[in-house]
Amino acid sequence: MRLFTRYSRVQKIPQNNYNFSEFVFPVIFVGLFTCVSVLISLWYRVLICDLYMYLMRRIFRCICCIFLIFVLFFPTAVSCAQNPLAARLELREVARYPHDVEAFTQGLFYEAGFLYESTGEYKFSTLRQVEIKTGKVIRKVRLPDKYFAEGMHIIGNKIYQLTWQAGYCFIYDKSTLKMIGQFQYKGEGWGLTGDGKYLIMSNGSDQLNFIEPSNFKSVRKISVKDVDAKTKKSFPLRNLNELEYINGEIWANIWQSTQIARINPVTGEVIGRIEFSAFVPTENRNELSLRWGERRSVLNGIAFDPQNKRIYITGKNWKIIYEFEIVSDVLQK
Predict the structure, then answer these.
(1) Which of 120, 130, 156, 314 would bridge with 301, disulfide CB 3.0–4.6 Å?
(2) Highest mean pLDDT out of 11-25, 47-61, 135-149
(3) Dist CA 245 CA 253 (whole Å)
(4) Which residues contact 75 (CB under 8 A, 6 or more apart)?
(5) 2-8+85-330 CATH pick, 3.40.50.720, 3.40.640.10, 3.40.50.10160, 2.120.10.30
(6) Distance between terminal CA atoms of the chain?
(7) Per-residue pLDDT at 78
(8) Where do the domains of the chain lie?
(9) Which of 91, 167, 156 is nearest to 327 (CA)?
(10) What's the CA gap between 206 and 239, in Å, rounded?
(11) Predicted model pTM
(12) Residue 174 gets which letter from DSSP?
């Protein structure tokens, strides 16, 4: 089965939205340098050579220099001004694997052929390493009963795991799953991912917080906004849950929904949404008719294998983990 991005709006990439600040300063510098050179040379040579021919040669050289600068810097400016993220995305299901139905999935991460999973609920929260094809739990540690585990992310040999309302981020040694440290934060913890430099954290609102992993201090925040397809008005997209950083985008489960939002990490703009209602297991489909807030076994859990371009998707207490491949990601003209 193939899966396409379900758009909340049609996004068109600007074709001529140039950012002149990328190349105007080099042009000005070269222009001034050339003008000064012309004046100095003119003062020196005006008495010993033909003024007209000399000026023509200098003007020609100036034109060549400015043209060269435009050629070098203009493409960079254009590419920076355009949105580099694909407006159209196609996924294809390639496999289904067993998943522990007792796992209340809060975070999922792919690492070296295994899935690492954070499961929630008081008295049942765990951090585990899972064999993908069999669903077998290779290693597992339980959190104290008073903690409700949430999202997790791996950087190097460290695993970062959030808690819901306790305000703690626990740090584990990946090779042993032994807890080696912790950080405190204010508010709730929901989803966690990283862009290669910072951790990115959600708290159930429309805000995403970029965090320095060495001290868990906030570096910046973005507000995630989508556009209503009918009114064309912008609105904050709340209930952002589990996160994953995929090909320069932030993918976010939207709590209580069957959709994943693709988010621009710079602007917070929603690029599009992917609808996964067709993949909800049969035994969990009855919950789709429940009112918002009453659904328990919801879509939650995104992991990305960047080398093979594989995406793993599951939900809370689902018996299946789906594996998708990225078939195409192209700009919509």
Answers:
(1) 314
(2) 135-149
(3) 12
(4) none
(5) 2.120.10.30
(6) 25
(7) 33
(8) 2-8+85-330, 20-81
(9) 91
(10) 7
(11) 0.74
(12) T
